[in-house]
Design a protein that fits this description.
403 residues, mainly beta, 5-stranded antiparallel beta sheet, 1% helix, 48% strand
C-alpha cells in the first residue's frame, strides 16, 4: 500500500541552512544501482533498499556534511541525486517526481524454450512486465531482484527538508512527465519545466506537485540532437518588461545557450531572449529579482561565477574566475544543480569537478565563495574535497539554501 497524505505540513527549518540531496554511490553507478531501488516504489522500505537517498545539512563555512536525515526510499529520475526536485524554501519542502519502477516477474518455465534450462534445475524463468514482446528467459538471479524499468506511474513526492519524511505521495494524473528540472514559482506554488518528449518538439509544462498534475502550456520546435539542460531552471522578473520569466539551459546542435521564456499573464509563453554559453548552475539574487547568479564553464580555463540579467547580453559581471585548484587539474563545473546562494546572496557554494593523479581519477570539490554586496566581485573562502567516484562519501545531487 502506498501512503497517501492529504496535506503536507513541513517541520520548520531552524534558522537558515544549506541542504543537499545526497545518495550513496551504489544508487548512481552502473549495475550496482540494484533491484531494491526499482522494486519498491516511493516511500517503501521493502527489501531494505540499499540505494536510499537522504537530505544532508552542510556546514556553511566549507560545505562539509554536518548531519543527514534518515533514509528516503524512492526511484530517482534525475541524472544527479534529486537534482530535478523543486525546492520550496518558504515551506521547507522539496517537491520531487519519482517513477514507479518494476522488477522482472516469474514466468512458467515449461512454456518457453528460452527457459528450458530452468526446468528441473537451478535458475528462474523471468519475464519483463514493461516489455511484453520480450520472451521470458532463464536467469540465475531471482526475478524480483532484477530491475526491469519504468512501470508507467509517476509519483509526486513532498519531502520535508528538515526531517526527510515523505509527507505527501500522490500519483500524477496522465500525461505524467519526468522533468529535466523543476523551477519553483513561489507566486503560484507550482514549478515550471521544459520536457523534450520527441526528436522535433519540447513542451513547457506547469507542474502542480501538491495536486499531482502536469499541464502543457506551449510547445517549442527542436532539432533531433538538441537537448534541455538538466537540473537547472529559474523563475525571475524580466528587467525589460517587469513580467515573470523562466531561464533554462538549451544545448546541442550548433551551440549552447540560455533561453528565456515569457511567463506573463496573457502571454504566449514564447522564447523572448537567448544568451550564448553553458550555465551549469543558476540561482536567483535575493536582492534583485531581475538578476541571476550563474556558474559558467570556460573551455580549458576553469569556470566563472557571474551575476547577470538574462534579458540583456551586455549586462553581465564576472565576479570570480577559478582557473585551477590546488586539489587537482582540469577544473570544470559539470555536476549541474550543485550551486546555491544564501538568503542575502552574499555567500555562494558550488561543486566543481577536477582530476587527480596518478590515473586522472575524477573528484568533486565544494567551493565556498563570498560575494560583494554591490555584486562587483567575489572571493574564494574555502575549497574542500566533497566526494569522488570511489571514496564512499555520499554523492551530492543538488544544493539549496533554506532561509
Amino acid at each position: 500500500m502506498r501512503p497517501l497524505v492529504a496535506a503536507l505540513v513541513p517541520a520548520a527549518v531552524a534558522g537558515g541552512s544549506l541542504k543537499a540531496i545526497v545518495a550513496p554511490k551504489q544508487a548512481r553507478l552502473g549495475a550496482a544501482r540494484d533491484a531494491p531501488l526499482y522494486a519498491t516504489g516511493p516511500g517503501s522500505t521493502i527489501l531494505g533498499a540499499t540505494g536510499a537517498y537522504s537530505i544532508a545539512t552542510l556546514d556553511e563555512t566549507n560545505g562539509t556534511i554536518l548531519s543527514t536525515t534518515p533514509a528516503i526510499y524512492f526511484s530517482d529520475d534525475g541524472v544527479m541525486p534529486g537534482c530535478n526536485a523543486a525546492a520550496a524554501p518558504a515551506d521547507g519542502v522539496y517537491w520531487k517526481t519519482a517513477p514507479l519502477e518494476a522488477t522482472f516477474e516469474d514466468a512458467n518455465a515449461s512454456a518457453y524454450h528460452n527457459c528450458a534450462g530452468c526446468v528441473g534445475g537451478p535458475g528462474h524463468c523471468c519475464a519483463d512486465p514493461t516489455t511484453p514482446s520480450m520472451t521470458p528467459t532463464c536467469f540465475k538471479t531471482a526475478c524480483d531482484k532484477i530491475p526491469a524499468g519504468a512501470a508507467g506511474e509517476v509519483f509526486s513526492l513532498g519531502i520535508d527538508a528538515a526531517t526527510g519524511a515523505v509527507a505527501s505521495n500522490k500519483t500524477f494524473a496522465l500525461p505524467a512527465v519526468s522533468p529535466p528540472f523543476s523551477a519553483w514559482d513561489a507566486s503560484i506554488e507550482k514549478a515550471w519545466t521544459v520536457v523534450p518528449y520527441s526528436y522535433t518538439e519540447a513542451g513547457l509544462f506547469l507542474l502542480d506537485y501538491a495536486n499531482a498534475t502536469a499541464t502543457r502550456v506551449s510547445t517549442f520546435a527542436k532539432g533531433a540532437t538538441d537537448g534541455i539542460g538538466v537540473c537547472e531552471g529559474r523563475v525571475f522578473t524580466a528587467a525589460d518588461t517587469g513580467a515573470k520569466a523562466l531561464a533554462y539551459q538549451f544545448g546541442g546542435g550548433l551551440a549552447d545557450e540560455l533561453r528565456v521564456v515569457d511567463l506573463s499573464d496573457g502571454g504566449d509563453y514564447s522564447i523572448v531572449h537567448t544568451l550564448p554559453g553553458f550555465y551549469s548552475g543558476l540561482a536567483n539574487d535575493p536582492k534583485d529579482a531581475s538578476k541571476l547568479f550563474g556558474v559558467v564553464n570556460v573551455k580549458n580555463h576553469g569556470l566563472e561565477l557571474v551575476h547577470f540579467d538574462p534579458t540583456n547580453a551586455n549586462a553581465s559581471t564576472t565576479l570570480l574566475k577559478i582557473a585551477n585548484t590546488s586539489l587537482g587539474r582540469m577544473l570544470r563545473a559539470q555536476d549541474q544543480a550543485d550551486f546555491a546562494v544564501d538568503a542575502n546572496g552574499d555567500r555562494a557554494w558550488l561543486v566543481a569537478s577536477y582530476n587527480v593523479d596518478p590515473g586522472g581519477k575524477l573528484v568533486r570539490g565544494l567551493f565556498t565563495v563570498d560575494v560583494a554586496a554591490d555584486r562587483s566581485s567575489a572571493s574564494l573562502v574555502s575549497t574542500v574535497e566533497a566526494f569522488s567516484d570511489d571514496d564512499g562519501k555520499p554523492w551530492f545531487g543538488t544544493l539549496d539554501y533554506f532561509p
